[in-house]
Amino acid sequence: MNKIKYILFFLGLPLIMAAQDSQLSVFDNLVDKTWYAEGKWGDGSAFKQEVTFEYDLGKAIVTAKSKGFVDAEQTKIGDRNLGIRKFDKSSNTIKFWEFDVFGGVTEGTVMQEGKNIVYQYKYGTSIVTDMWEYVDDSTYNFKVGSYKDGKWEQVYLSTKFIQKK
Questions:
Q1: How far apart are CA 119 and CA 144, in angstroms?
Q2: Less crowded by CB within 10 Å, the N or C end of the chain?
Q3: CATH code for the structural domain at 2-163
Q4: Does the CA dihedral 35-43-95-142 come out positive or negative?
Q5: Nearest to 141 by CA among 128, 165, 119, 158
Q6: What pLDDT score does 6 carry?
């Protein structure tokens, strides 16, 4: 009887592993690529970011390493953020943490809307949404703002992330 249990366990192991991988599959198109965006915030200040996504820890997490402005004058580009995305079994959601060069951390949840990737997090007293809206395998529209019930109430930034060749 124990022999049968072991055989069934080892036959089912690839299915269990595949199910874990699929929890982060929303990031598949971003991983092992570098993405670049440039634009202006609603207040007119510049936005520049370069993000490289990778799977790590046997595909248990996705890391996002970002370069961007690292000074208040927005003249110096450098390593700005290190992000982690991980499926949380207890809440059945993808959670993220974004650590920045200034000592801050942003945390929230990631949802999938079709091929779109939607981040939601608390910023001060507001709930903010970042959306990577799929255009094609090398382009995403990127928006930051207030997003409720599938509609943008206010947009603070609208630009595109393009895969860097």
A1: 9
A2: N
A3: 2.40.128.20
A4: negative
A5: 158
A6: 42
Question: CB-based contacts of 123: which residues, under 8 Å, 6+ apart?
Answer: 106
User: How far is the C-alpha of 53 from the C-alpha of 7, rounded, in Å?
Assistant: 37
pLDDT in tens, 85-94: 999 999 999 9
Domain boundaries, the chain: 2-163
Listing DSSP states for 18-80 in one string gives HHHHHTTGGGTTTBTEEEEEEEEBTTS-EEEEEEEEEEETTTTEEEEEEEEE-STTS--EEEE
> From CA 113, how far away is CA 38, in angstroms rounded?
24
pLDDT digits (tens, 9 = 90+) for 3-16: 554 444 444 444 44
CB atoms within 10 A of CB 127: 13
| Euclidean distance between the first and the last CA atom of the chain, given in angstroms as a whole number | 55
